[in-house]
C-alpha cells in the first residue's frame, strides 16, 4: 500500500508489452542471423544452376537427386556409424569418469584439478590441437615408433593417421569432455543423503549406480548425446584434417558442392541435414527436461 | 559432492560369538566415542551413553554441538575416530551401514526422486532380490502404517513435505531396524504439522518397541517425546536423563539455560543455582530472596505472561506469571521491580 504511490513519475508497462519488449532484441537477432539465411538457403535449393551461377527458375531435380541418390544414403550411414561408435565410447567413458570424480574423490581440490585437466585441450585452438595428432599418430609418430621399437610391427601402420580411425580418435578425444561435464552436472545434483539412504537400504555400489545414479543422470547423458550428435553431424573440420581426403561424410559432401560453386545441391543437403539433426535432438529431448538440467 | 561410497573399512575385527538379541541390555551404547575432523577441537569429545531397550532418546543441543555427528557415527555415515559403538550389545563401530541394524531418516528425507512412494519403500527389498509382487505388497503395508497408502504411486516431487516424511519413515522401517535414527525430522514442517507428526512418531515407536534416536534443537520436542533426553554442548554430553529429571534438576547452568524456563542465580553460600521461571514472582515478599531490576520485556503467551527483568549487572531473569496474577497488577516496560523466589526452590548447579 505504501509503495504503490511513492513514484508517480514511473511509467508502468503492461506485463504483456513488457514480455514482448524483453523478447524483441533476441528475436531480431535470431530472425536476421538464423531465420532469414535459412529461408534463403531453402529458396536457393529449389533454383536452377550451372557452373557458378544460380538462375531464378524452379528446378526440382536437385531435391529429387539428393533424396533418391545412393550417395546420400551412404554418406548418412557413414556419418551415423561415426556417431554410434563415438557415442558408444564417450557415453560410458564420460559416465565412468564423472562417477569417479563425483563419488570417489574425497578431496575437493583434487577434483577441481582433474576437471581442469580434462578441460585443458579446449584451451588450445582447434588447428593446434589437430596438428598435434601428427607427431602422435603419423608414420613417424610416437605410436608407430613405440610399436616398431617393441617389435610388435615390422613397418609403420599407415591407418593411424588420415583414416576413419584417426577421425574416430579425434572425435572421442574431443567429445568425451562434454559427456563428462553433463554427467557430472547431473551427479552433483544428487544429494549425498540419497546415496546414504540407498546404502542404509543395503544396496551395493553397483546397485546404487544402476538403480539410483544412472536413472538420475540419464537427462545429463541425453544432453551430452545431443552435443555429440550435433558436433559429429555438422563436422567438416575434423573429418577433413584427420581423414585426409580419404573420408567422406554428409558435411564433407556439402563442402565439396560449395567448393564447386554448386549452391542449390549444397543448400538442399544442408536443409536435409538440419531436418535430420533436429529430429534426433527432439527425440533425445524426450529423455531430458533441458530447462530443469540447466537450472542452477 | 563430497561423499564416498566406499567407507574405508579397517581390517575386520576378530570374530565374536553372536549374541542372542533377545537378551541384550541396551539398544545402543556409545563408549568413549570421539570424532576429530582434523587438528583442533574434536566435533565429538569422548562421549559415553547407554540407551535402554525400547527408548525414545532425544539428542538435544544447539547447532554445532556434535549431536548430528554423533547420530551419523551411529548410522555408519561418519567414521569414528576413537571409541566404540554397540547396537544390541554387538560392536559395530566400523561396520557398514546395512550391517548395523540401524536406519536413518534424513533431514531432507532423501527420497529417491525418480521412484514412486511405493518403490521408494520397496527399494531395500528390491536390492535383496525380493520378488516384485512380494516387495510391493510389503511396501504397501508399511505405507499403511504411516497412512500414505493412498498416495503410493506419487513421485516425491508430487508430495508435500509432511507426506514425503511419512514415506521416508516407511522406507526406514521396512528394513526392520533395531534402532531408528532421525536427523531433525520435524524441523522442515510447519508448527501444526510438527506437533501432529511428533505424536505419530511416538505412537509408531511404542507400537514397534524399538529405540528411536532423534536429533533436535527444540527443547519442547525433546521434552514431549523423549524417555531419555541427552543435552549436548561443545562436543560433550552436558546431562542425560529422563525428561522430567533433566528439566527439574538441571545439573549445570548450560542445561538450565538451554532448556529454557529457568533462571540461573548466584546462591547465598556461593555457586550457582537454577530456579524455574514459573516459581518466580514479581514483588518482594517476606521469606523470599529478591533481586532488583527493571522490566525489559513482557510477552503474553495465552496461558501465562512472561516478564523479563534486567538486573543491575545486566543479568536477565524471567518470571512466568499466571495471566490472572499479571493482569491484576499490570506491569509496564522500564518499571523498577523486585523479582523474588523461595530459596527452597533453588536447585544447586555444578
TrEMBL record, chain A:
Coiled coil regions, renumbered to chain: none
Annotated keywords: Cell membrane, Membrane, Transmembrane, Transmembrane helix, Transport
Transmembrane annotation, as ranges: 20-46, 82-102, 109-128, 165-184, 220-242, 262-285
Keyword Chloroplast: no
GO biological process: transmembrane transport
Membrane topology, record value: Multi-pass membrane protein
Lineage: superkingdom: Bacteria
Location(s), subcellular: Cell membrane
InterPro entries, alphabetized: MetI-like (IPR000515), MetI-like_sf (IPR035906)
Keyword set includes Transport: yes
Span of domain ABC transmembrane type-1: 76-286
CDD domains: TM_PBP2 (cd06261)
GO CC annotations, alphabetized: plasma membrane
Family statement drawn from the similarity comment of this UniProt entry: Belongs to the binding-protein-dependent transport system permease family. CysTW subfamily.
PANTHER family reported in the protein's UniProt record: INNER MEMBRANE ABC TRANSPORTER PERMEASE PROTEIN YDCU-RELATED, INNER MEMBRANE ABC TRANSPORTER PERMEASE PROTEIN YDCU-RELATED-RELATED
Protein name: Putative spermidine/putrescine transport system permease protein
Native source organism of the sequence: Alloyangia pacifica
From TrEMBL, chain B:
Residue stretches making up the ABC transporter domain: 28-259
GO cellular component: ATP-binding cassette (ABC) transporter complex
Transmembrane annotation, as ranges: none
Taxonomic path: Bacteria, Pseudomonadati, Pseudomonadota, Alphaproteobacteria, Rhodobacterales
GO biological process: quaternary ammonium group transport
Protein name: Putative spermidine/putrescine transport system ATP-binding protein
InterPro entries: AAA+_ATPase, ABC_SmlMolc_Importer, ABC_transporter-like_ATP-bd, ABC_transporter-like_CS, Mo/tungstate-bd_C_term_dom, P-loop_NTPase, Transp-assoc_OB_typ2
Disordered as annotated region, ranges: 1-21
Keywords: ATP-binding, Nucleotide-binding, Transport
Keyword Transport on entry: yes
Molecular function, one GO term: ATP hydrolysis activity
UniProt-listed SUPFAM superfamilies: MOP-like, P-loop containing nucleoside triphosphate hydrolases
